[in-house]
Amino acid sequence: MTTEDVPLLAGEHLTRVFGRGRDAVRAVDDVSLALRPGEITTVVGESGSGKSTLARLLLRLLTPTAGRLLLDGRDVTRTSDTTAYWRDVQAVFQDPFSAFNQFFTVRRLMARARRLLGPDLTDARVAEALEQVGLRPGDVLGRYPHQLSGGQRQRVMIARALLVRPRVLIADEATSMLDASLRATILNVLTDLRAETGLAILFITHDIGQACYVSDRVLVMRSGRVVESGPTDEVIFAPTHEYTRRLLADVPRLHG
Amino acid sequence: MSTEGPATDLAPADAAAGQLLTARGLRAAYGPTVAVDDVALTVGTGEVLGIAGESGCGKSTLAAVLSLTARPPLTVLGGDLTVDGQHLDLAGRPPRTWRGGVVSLLPQGAMNALSATARVGDMAVDVVRAHRGRVPRSVALDLLADRLDALDLPRRVIGAYPHQLSGGMRQRVVTVLSTLLDPRLLIADEPTSALDVSTQRALVELLRELVGRGLVGGIVFVTHDLPVLRAVADRIAVMYAGRIVETGPTAALVDDPRHPYTAALLSSVLVPEPQVRRRRIGGIRGAPPDLADPPAGCRFRPRCSLATDACTDDPPAVGDPDRYATCWWTRDHPDERLEPSL
After folding, report:
1. Is the pTM higher than 0.90?
2. Chain B residues with CB inside 8 Å of A149's CB?
């Protein structure tokens, strides 16, 4: 991908192989992508297509077998300072129920960001992060996870990620476990953040309906490879790859 | 059994001819929390009834009650079932002959429903012997093989362990095992929720096939996923806070909802269609009520944009037993479409 502007975060020919010899599985196979400020890029694919492995590579939770990771054009594939990296790149995961320590209040959970922020972590900053996702700090700070609804928990997880003011947010199936009615509100939080803060968002989902609602660009993954990518309207309403067409044909529709 | 609930008033007094299932006055609770509150429903022979609703609305509890799999802390407070002319009062202990034979449950997580250390064939032998006594192993395996052939599934699964099968195939195997004894009524509790769209579609086709061939008499399909219900169900009942608030034929309910909750649920569905990209989808404000202390009158009232003072009284069921909504607004505006008013 050669463009004039340097993308915020880019993966070039990222590959990750698990196992070796005959048992080797190419979970992510030669994937290149670029995340730009103020853009939501969505990766769609069925279970086992390598979406989550890709997320883990981009989060530097896994090292790629081959390929490079570039932040602001700098090669960060093997730099040792992940703490600095995580100030720029944050994540929200699928399960808002197990991602919490049950014995921590929201206030204490948010205070864990001190490891990344040091003295910059102020009460005002915590309040601002919670307000960004539509929560009233007074309502939630003193609460334990079991006292929050699923939608509130996932919003707290997003607020926690926003606390360090990252430039990239990776949301791996962040809305899959929520009801349709809550899902829309969480997706709206993401689209508002994109508009207000210019955050670059990578949204990973198996649900093409959600991809259609939030994304600017869509990548379709199958067996570790990107089979089709482009602007949302093109990929979803005028797919060119056979697999994308089949995937879309399998999506149940509401009318007709 | 309570009779003042609106749904019960409309339920046919006697099991009408052609009905596979008639359930009346179903009530079930977790301690003081009544999760299913006076629910009545019917399923016709050869019909798939969809039950839709958000988490915590009581739909899985309803599935447990209907499939006779309720166990503590869930207690069934009352109600009765008529399946294929056989009557069962739920206040007593359900007879063992009903489970698996008359009603059968297809549970949510296919990965957890299968024993990790048994081959699929062994599980089939267990299922058959549990209900039909000392049946030779070969007879049970033949039954499974015939069923796999009939449904165009590969026979190789008979000798396979669950970990050797894909998630979608496991869910289909669980479906075959739970319908091996030709239950009259299959209760499917969120069977497609953990699957991606392609395996979801295959399972929906399998279920329609089972009903179409008469291998099961009818299906109650519980899910929060309305597009899946559009594909699989003949009729839909929408559940909110332990009660059924609307029911009707699938197309009629989806195209012209008569309860504000149904309309709100439908408008928060994200499908890959051009109009989804052009408008902002709001979701439903607020949260479902605490079932230990539900609001008086209409339980959707605190979240409803059409609520008036009248809604503090129990809403009437507007319509007939096959197509009704329990709503004051709908009673006062019989010919108006709901969506533009929300």
Report:
1. no
2. 287
- Measured CA to CA, the distance from residue A83 to residue A87 in angstroms comes to 7
Question: Which tens digits make up the pLDDT trace of A94-115?
Answer: 877 677 788 999 999 999 888 8
Over residues A201-213, mean pLDDT:
94
Residue B235 CA to residue B47 CA, distance in Å, equals 8
Q: Cis before residue B316, ω within 30 degrees of 0?
A: no
Residue A21: per-residue pLDDT:
86
Q: How many angstroms separate the CA atoms of B339 and B179, rounded?
A: 40
Q: Cβ separation of A180 and B167 shorter than 8 Å?
A: no
The predicted pLDDT at position A68 comes to 96
Torsion of CA B74, B75, B81, B83, to 10 degrees: 50
B283 to A247: CB separation less than 8 angstroms, yes or no: no
CATH number of the domain encompassing residue B62: 3.40.50.300
CA dihedral A231, A236, A241, A242 (to 10 degrees): 170
Query: What's the pLDDT score for residue B110?
Result: 65
In a domain, B1, yes or no: no
Partners of A182 on chain B (C-beta within 8 Å) are 283
Look up residue B146 and give its two tokens.
């015939």
Residues 6+ apart with CB under 8 A from B25: B1, B2, B3, B5, B8, B38, B39, B40, B78, B79, B80
CATH number of the domain within which A13 lies: 3.40.50.300
Q: Is the Cβ pair B277, A206 closer than 8 Å? A: no
B265 band by pLDDT with thresholds 50, 70 and 90: very high
d(CA A226, CA B88): 55
For residues B170 and B291, membership in a common domain is answered with no
Contact by Cβ (8 Å): A109, A156: yes
Segments in chain B forming alpha helices (H): 6-10, 59-66, 110-113, 120-132, 137-150, 167-178, 197-212, 226-232, 250-255, 260-267, 274-278, 328-332
Chain B residues close to A205, C-beta within 8 Å: none
Domain that holds residue B321: 6-102+183-341
- Do B232 and B275 contact (CB within 8 A), yes or no? no
* Interchain pair B270, A181: CB under 8 A: no
Q: Are B236 and B335 in the same domain? A: yes
Residues of A in contact with B226 (CB under 8 A): 180, 254
| Number of continuous H segments (helices) and E segments (strands) in chain A | 11, 10
pLDDT band at A146 (very low <50, low <70, confident <90, very high): confident
Are B272 and A248 a contacting pair at CB < 8 A? Answer: yes
| ipTM for the assembly | 0.81
A236 CB within 8 Å of a chain B CB:
yes
Full residue range of the structural domain in which residue A17 is found: 9-97+167-250
- CB within 8 Å: A250 and B55: no
Given a contact cutoff of 8 angstroms between Cβ atoms, the answer to whether A187 and A217 are in contact is: no
For residue B226, the chain A residue with the least C-alpha distance is A254
Q: Mind listing the pLDDT tens digit for each residue in B77-120?
A: 999 999 988 999 998 888 888 888 899 999 877 667 889 999 99
Kindly report the nearest CA distance between residue A90 and chain B, in angstroms. Answer: 26
Contacts of B238 in chain A (CB under 8 A): none
Sign for the CA dihedral angle at A103, A107, A110, A113 comes to: negative
Examine the domain organization and report whether B280 and B335 are in the same domain: yes
pLDDT at A153: 87
